[in-house]
Amino acid sequence: MEKVNFKGVKLFAPASIANISCGFDVLGLCLENIGDIMEIRRSEKAGIQIKSIIGQDLPLEAENNVAGVAGLALLEAHNPQLGFEIIIEKNIKPGSGIGSSAASAAGTVAGINYLLGNPFTPTELVPFAMEGERLACGSAHADNVAPALLGGFTLVRNTNPLDVCKLPTPLELAATVIHPKIEVKTADARAVLKKRVSLEKAINQWANVGALVSSLYEEDYELLSRSLVDEIVEPSRSILIPQFAELKTACERTGALGSGISGSGPSVFALSRGMTTAHKVAQAMQQVYEKTDIPFEIHVSPVKQSGVSFLEDIT
Predict the structure, then answer these.
(1) Where are the beta strands (DSSP E) in the chain?
(2) pTM
(3) Is the residue at 16 inside a domain?
(4) In CATH, what number is assigned to the domain containing residue 115?
(5) Residue 184, SS3 per DSSP
(6) Nearest residue to 300 via CA among 282, 273, 274, 313
(7) Catalytic: which of 186, 234, 254, 277?
(8) Which range (56-65, 94-103, 132-141, 185-194) has the least confidence?
(9) Percent of the chain with pLDDT over 70
(10) What was the pLDDT predicted at 18?
(11) 123 and 197 fall within a common domain
């Protein structure tokens, strides 16, 4: 464990896309240029203090905030007598479907760990960040916090005990995400899911997950494209997202490898081979939503190979 003498650290906590169509609750990827900016500082007062949140109206009480809960879980495991202050610049809207709560939770535990001299590995930080997700939606899932901490693609084989695999990322892969500014709560998105699925659909789904993982190792973009099919979750959740079918058609016509619901929605993602195609997909998405009265924003990003990035030490 390294000794760290500075008072704090400024960091970038990345957004993420979970599920990747066929991998409900197990697959995720990290985005390069979408995320929150956070400052974590040492404090003489034990526990977690959230000093301010810029950009969103969220609770400052540590026990009611995903960043606070994640930080407290880490301190409970390491040393409850230590204290840290947190400032969050929220650039990811809560409920947007690109890992807003995961970014706050991952950024907090990564920042505290950094100031402690890295007693935990990135994988060991995942369970602490999962406690923030438990607060956010009632389920301690890891498909967003794992890529936010580890970077690239991740596969969560199990959460109890935790077993996370980092997967390779094809170098030319790029993501386009459209965020319709409507609210789809994770709890509501889970409520519409069927409790039972047919054996045929289950077989197709796990075949697609296996093929998608293989495509990442082989950098086989055609196989990746054929694997981006969700027969279980997307049919139920797509009804919550206006113009979903039109978006998928526009992405396909523009050359995307595939598209689907990002996390629990309402954001919709598309994966493309190359940033040029990803930007064309963004234009096609824009044309679909310009015909509606729903405000939206679009992001185009490479896959981020590392997780939380440390920007500046605070002395």
Answers:
(1) 8-18, 27-43, 47-54, 83-89, 153-159, 162-167, 173-180, 258-261, 268-273, 296-302, 309-314
(2) 0.94
(3) yes
(4) 3.30.230.10
(5) coil
(6) 282
(7) 186
(8) 185-194
(9) 98
(10) 96
(11) no
133 is catalytic: yes
Same domain flag for 147 and 228:
no
Supply the range of the domain harboring residue 230.
173-302
Confidence band of 1 (pLDDT split at 50, 70, 90): low
Residues 56-77 have a mean pLDDT of 96
Residue with tokens 């650290």: 9
Please, what is the average pLDDT of the chain?
94
Q: What is the CATH number of the domain that holds 185?
A: 3.30.70.890
Handedness of CA 141, 231, 185, 18 (dihedral sign): positive
Which is catalytic among the residues 133, 154, 169, 176?
Answer: 133
Number of neighbouring beta carbons within 10 Å of residue 113: 22
Band (pLDDT 50/70/90 cuts) for residue 258 is very high
Based on the domain organization, do 163 and 177 belong to the same domain? no
Which tens digits make up the pLDDT trace of 109-128? 999 999 999 999 999 999 99
DSSP-derived 3-state class of residue 20:
coil
In a domain, 149, yes or no: yes
Q: Is 124 a catalytic residue?
A: no
d(CA 242, CA 181): 11
